[in-house]
Structures are given as structure tokens and as C-alpha cells.
Design a protein that fits this description.
Layout lengths: L2 H11 L8 E6 L2 E6 H7 L1 H7 L10 E3 L5 H11 L8 H13 L3 H9 L6 H11 L2 H13 L1 H4 L8 H9 L3 E7 L14 E6 L4 E7 L9 E6 L2 E6 L1 E2 L4 E2 L3 E5 L4 E5 L10 E5 L2 E5 L2 E2 L2 E2 L3 E5 L4 E5 L11 E4 L2 E8 L3 E8 L4 E9 L7 E5 L2 E7 L7 E8 L4 E4 L4 E2 L8 E4 L2 E5 L3 E8 L2 E9 L7 E7 L10
Parallel strand pairs: 1-3
Antiparallel strand pairs: 1-2, 4-5, 4-32, 5-6, 7-8, 8-11, 9-10, 11-12, 13-14, 14-17, 15-16, 17-18, 19-20, 20-21, 21-22, 23-24, 24-25, 25-26, 25-27, 28-29, 29-30, 30-31
Length: 467
Amino acid sequence: MTPGEEEEEEEEEGCRPGPPERVCIWVEEQPFWVEKALLVQSSEYFRGLFRSGMRESRQEQMGLGELSAAGFLAMLRVLAGERPVLGSEETFQAVECAAFLQVKPLAEYLIHSIDSDNCILLFQAAAIFGLLDLFHRAALYIRDSYAELEPDLRCLSDDLLAYVDTLLPSTFVAVGAHTPTFEFLEDLSRTICYLDEETNTWRTLSCLPLGASTFLAGMATMDNKIYIVGGVYGASKQVVESSFCYDADADAWSEFPSPHQLRYDVRLVGHEGHLYAIGGEYDKISLKSVERYDPASGTWTFVSDLPQPSAAAPCTQAMGQIFVGLWKPLDVTVIYKYESRGDAWLPVTELKRPQSYGHCMVAHRDNLYIMRNGPSDDFLRCVIDCFNLRSQQWSALPGQFLNSKGALFTAIVRGDTVYTVNKVVTLLYSVEEETWRFKKERVGFPRPGSLQTFLLRLPRRDHDLAR
């Protein structure tokens, strides 16, 4: 073999013919063998190309001269089910790839990866390449964390800053446990309230409909609406058969269909445009069934059951996935994630601790925080354990959070801030690495009993007086 032939073979070695269903994509002189079916399923660009009947659609090799190899590799890793940590340059290149190839799963991954470290970069890159959903979601994150990010916002152009300024910040909202009432016995405390942080006052947002129950009800927010499912009334825990929705934009209530299986003490989660009613009880029997509600069609459908019956299971969302904690005697909580594509609950990890049944689970970035009662019989203490989804490692947060001071088992994360509340005080913590540091103190919620808390974007209008 001549030297010229050797050089020619070396150049072609990286892209030797593969199976007929695969194609070799050259990006920045790097070859990537990819399943055609995967590209057709995930990319509008390749779907149109391979179904066009053009000569290029039948070639075993093709080049993408406009893209970077790092961005294309990030796309392939996401499509393979990985959740890669991307540096600044890789992030920018991944946005370019998602836009040029119209790869929805990659765009969704970038949305779910928005945090205080990359939100400005993602906002700028999405503006350049025209990824509107990513652009809007990054802008919302910046709006919610404006005070903390303000020193870094000077790099943004005037038009980008103006867009952020047009958005409404999210507001901390809470509601107590109330049962349905009659009009002639109207309970004026049956209200949803929001925290006016400027005046340090809880104000009334809206009164609950007479037939709505928030006692043992499933409640969740989605698309700036509060949804209420189930709940009970009476000593025998009769389940409420109506479901209610509060639209914060319209300041109006409406009813919507209830799940096929009536349930109370249910966990309701808004995820990817659907509501999930997870477990719960009916007639004092714990349930493992899960139903999904499509607001567009107004219909509920059953999806895969939980691995075991569970009521009031701690749930949260992180990195675009639903996580649920199921308690197994003795002292074990198993964390599962819901795989929506395969419709399956997959085990992630176990927490083995005394009193390990998690009363609350919240997420920040790629960390799950499990709040539980303290050791032995010390129920005035809250211990917080942290599980990192990437490293698959557990760690314990230093310090204890006391029931008498802070609000256990109700927590909401906005940006890098955790809001907790009870009747005495509302405490704000700053999440720094894997530690919660005390940040601010606000007035407590003026209602006894259990609470459910949310974030809503409230239109600028006059609400009721402080309550």
C-alpha cells in the first residue's frame, strides 16, 4: 500500500459503512454514527430530510458544516437518556444545535437545566437562535431572581432587559385546610392568600368555592392555575366529588372533571402540561393507582400504578422528572422516578434512617431534599437529607430545623431560595451548594392547621385587604 493510500484509508476509517439503518454524520471533521430512527423521532430537520426522497436521504454519510461537534455530542447524549453537565461553551453550542436541527428533547432538557449559573447565557443564546420557549423560561427565572442576579444583568442588551421587566415575578401563595361549607354558614377564613413581601403581610387572593375542600385534597399549580382534586368533609371522610381550578390570570374559578377513581389524601402534580393524581385513599383504603389529566381534552386516563399503595406520598420534580418517596417499614424510604416515555415507576435510591418516612420532598437543581422527623421521639426537630441525582450520593444537611421556629413539611423553591411557613413565621433560606443558610424572616401564615403552598404569577391588580 502506498503512503497516499494509507492516508486515504486513515481519513475514511472513522466513517466505515455501518448497518443500513444508521447514518454517519460529519460535524467539524468528526464522525458520529447515529440511528436514523432516533434522528427522525427527535429532530424536525432530519425528519424532513430522510422523508424527502432526495438523494441526501439515501446517503450513508452527510456533513453538518454549520454546527459544532460539542453541541452535536450533547444532543446525542441527551437523546440517549443522559443528563450531561454542560460548560458555558457547550451550553451555547447545544442551544445552536437544538435550534438548527429542531430537536425538541434537547430544548426541553435545556429548559429543565436552567439555574442561576446559566440562566443569563441561555437567555442570550435562545434570543440569538430563536428558541422561544427556552427564551421565555430563562427570562422568567431571571425575573424571579432579579435581585440576586442584578449585578450580572449589565451584560444584557436593553431590549432583553425590557423583556424581563415586562414579566410578572412569582409570588408565595398558601392555603389552609378547609372543608366545604353552606352559603348561610360561609366561613370567611376559607381563602387562598399570598405573601406581600414589601409590606410583610399576607393578603387575600381569592375565596374558595363553597363546594371545594382543601382538607386532605390534592393541590398543584400548572400554567398559572391552582388545581384542587379530592378532599373530604365530615367525620367519616366523605370524598368531595368535584374538582376545582383557580385561574390567576382571570381571577376566576371553574370546575373540571374528577379522576375516575375518587380519592383523598392524594398527591397532585402538574408536569409537562398534564396533572397526575398519585395514590391517595378511598374509603380508608390506600391506593396505588395513578391517573393523568389532559386539560386540552378534559379527560383522565390511568397510567402505571405506584409500586405500592401510598397516601400523601412526598413528591417533587427535578430535571424534568417526577420523583416520589414511598415508605417501607422499617425506617426505609424508597425514591422512585416516573419515566413518562415508558410509563413506568423506576427505583432511584433508598434512604435508611430512623423516622425516615419523608414528610416533604423538594428539589433544587439536581438535588432532592428529604425532610423528616428527628431521631428517636424528638418530633420537634426536622432533619434534612440530600440526594444528588448525578452522583447518586446521599449527604445530610448540617443543623436542625425546629417545628417551633420554621415550617416543616411545606417548602417551595424559587430560584436559589427556599420558602417555608407556619403560623408563627415564614422563613427564607438560601441554597448554597448543598447547604441551606438562613436568609430572611417574614410574618407567619395567620391560620392554624396544615398548609399547602405554591408559586403563582399574580397580575397587577388590587386584591383584598390583609387577612
